[in-house]
Every structure is written in structure tokens, then in C-alpha cells.
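User: My advisor, Dr. K., asked me to get a structural model of this assembly before our group meeting. I'm new to this, so sorry if the format is off. These are the inputs:
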Amino acid sequence: MSIRAVVCFMTQQLYDRPMRFYTEYLTFKTAKHREYINMTAQVESALRKSGIQEGMILVSAMHITAGVWVNDAEDGLIADIDEWLEKLAPFRQDYRHHRTGETNGDSHLKSLLVHHEVVVPVTKGKLDFGPWQQVYYAEFDGQRSKRVIIKVMGE
Amino acid sequence: MSIRAVVCFMTQQLYDRPMRFYTEYLTFKTAKHREYINMTAQVESALRKSGIQEGMILVSAMHITAGVWVNDAEDGLIADIDEWLEKLAPFRQDYRHHRTGETNGDSHLKSLLVHHEVVVPVTKGKLDFGPWQQVYYAEFDGQRSKRVIIKVMGE
Amino acid sequence: MSIRAVVCFMTQQLYDRPMRFYTEYLTFKTAKHREYINMTAQVESALRKSGIQEGMILVSAMHITAGVWVNDAEDGLIADIDEWLEKLAPFRQDYRHHRTGETNGDSHLKSLLVHHEVVVPVTKGKLDFGPWQQVYYAEFDGQRSKRVIIKVMGE
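Assistant: The format is fine. Below is the predicted structure of the whole assembly, which you can bring to the meeting.
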């Protein structure tokens, strides 16, 4: 075994051990214009595939008329949130954005309001969540394919 | 010293050097239903214990009726924020969520509005903040124990 | 070549390979009180300089009257967002915060509403964005120098 062989072996260790990245893309095509999907199981699945024990997961919508949040999986609350968002960022005909031919000005505002991403902590190979925390994908302009990136980073 | 001994020594270096994670959990039990707590000192303390010089800190509420933000430590502003949140996401009797027996529908909406987490940059062993930035825990449904995770990641 | 020489060589690899951090500070001084600046090119430039292929970028305002978001680069929409923010978090004379001599209470609320930071995924040396995603700096109290930190982390 030459000195060079040792060096190569160690370099391989560097790739395997200290920091790993695992990226997955999900595609959602909702039946409705606005829809809210609990995607916690998909985030957990990506974490398992990554093999990462310590780190964090970025879950981020890749479109500008969708959001990602962490909150409760309770249907009544989801309906409350939907009504509340429509009140704070209502559909209107006269958004300036509609001069481009789009009709989804409110979808952009709703996305800004709830934010398009979350960072989830990972400890001992699990989502380090409190008892009721769930990751939701919030579609504000659906009925077409939209992507979400899940990037797991850690060791 | 055999070649194998060199390899083991190097592997240990891999654990110590490139990436560290330090996790701390805080518990808040506020006297009031809504309360805003400057937790910058606790975040700084976690950073010191981690020994991390370069990286970032995820500060994330583990409950779905609380928030974390970065803004000013000025009592008048805190009162303005509280009033503003109650206006945009008011307490109401008739949230659908209350059919579950809960009465905290507005607390969930307030949490969504301000977001439940922040990521703080770390440079040269310090929170890399501007002159007025402070980390706040925002309790929207208090008078019981609620947890916040601080996860420091870096080297 | 002694065994010690091998160890030193490997230690250097540890610094170079597994995790890199690159930090850049931008300063914006807008002509107007409220202004929205597409800073995607600056974020891409910081990523190139970092040489990082896999990881993420924290883009975070260092002031408490500014925001950072990811959304569309469409002037009509930007005007819609500005109008909408003024409606949800309006300028008022009577904010309690103004007793300090400040007049920017609404700027703080707008900052909370849109959030002061984003985390951008990096894959294969590029911002891993969907087709329309752009990073914006949102100035809510301008006409003076304000800083934004860009921290690239990865390998």
C-alpha cells in the first residue's frame, strides 16, 4: 500500500462522512385552484433516504404563487386559513399584474404572506418537531404542475 | 506507526473539524395569553456553548401557536405589533377550528403571519446582526409550557 | 515523505473540501422611502465567488425596516405588492413606537409581514430556483445606507 493509496482512501472518507446533501423534487398538480396538502410524509421520506442524522431540511416552493408552512393538520383550521388569506389578500380584477395577461395577482400576495419556504431541524435522524407540527404545501394557483424542492443537509 | 494507525487518526479529525451541530431546547411559560420575549441572550449563549465560528442558527418554535422573529427591542413597537396582529388576525368565536374544542384559531393565524422560525448568520463566533436586530419569541397562546429549538450548525 | 507529512496534507484537505462558508455584505441606499430591488444577480455573483456546488444561501436584511423575499420580477406586481403592504401595514402618526422620535412604525410592520430573510437552495453550482423566482430586497425606510448579508454555505 503506497502513501498515495492512503491519501485516496482518506479523500473518500471526506465525501462520505462530514456533510451530506440530498435533494428531491416533488410535483403537485392540485384539482382545485387553492388547495393545502400535508407533505410531512414526503419530507420524512426524503430524510430517511438521505441517511442524515443531524442537520436541517429546506422545503421550498419553486413557484411564486405557492407557499410552504408548518402548522396544524386540522381541516377546520385549514378552512379558516383559506378564508383568512382570501380576506387579507383577496382576488381582484384590477391588480396591475393582470395587464400581463395573468389573473393570479392575489396568489402572489398570498405566497408572500405565508412565505414560500421553511427550514426543518433534524436531530437523531428525525424531524425535530413539536407534537402538532406538520409541513404543508399551500397551492394558490393550481390545476397545473408545480414543483417543491426538499434539500436535506447534514451528517 | 502503521498505515492503519494514520487512517484512524485522520478519521477522528473528520469528526472534530469540519461541521458541528449543537442543539438546545428552551421552554417558555408566559404569565399572559400573548407575550413577547427577547431571547437574543439565550441564542448567544447557545452559540458560545457550541464553539462554532462560522455557520448559522435555526431558531424555531416547536408549537403552532407561537412565532419567532427578528426585530427591534422597543416596548412601544412591541405594543404596536401586538395591536396590529390582533387587527389582522383577530380573536373570533366562530373559527371552524373551534369545533375541536380549541379557542385559539387566531393564535394559529398570528403564527402563520409572523412565521415560526428565523435563521441567524454566524460570523467569527458572533451573531452577524445589524445594530438593532434582536430575536423575539412571540407567544400567542401562553400560560402553559411551550418549547423552542435552537440548532447551531457550522464549524 | 514521512507519515507526518501525510497527516498534514490530509488536514489541509479537510479545510478545503467538506464545508465552505462565504460571506458578503451589500449596501443599498435607495432614492425613495420605499423601493424594491432585484438582487438576484448579486446573489449569483456571491455564489460564483464561493465556488460552492451544493448547499444553500442565507440572504438576510441586517436592518429591522427592510425585507427580503423571493417572487416575480414584474413591475406591475411590484406596484401591487407596495399598495397591498401599505393597506395591511399603513403609515400612521400614532404608533407608540413614534414616541421614541422615529416615524417608521409602519416600516417595522411591513418588514415583519414579508419577513427579513430567505434561504436559497444551491445545486450543481446554481441557484436551484423555479422559472420565475427572483430574490428581492424590499426597502421600507430608505434614503440611507442599509446592509444585507449573503452567506453561502456548502461544499
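One thing worth pointing out at the meeting: Residues 3-16 of chain C form the longest helix (14 residues).

User: Perfect, thanks a lot.
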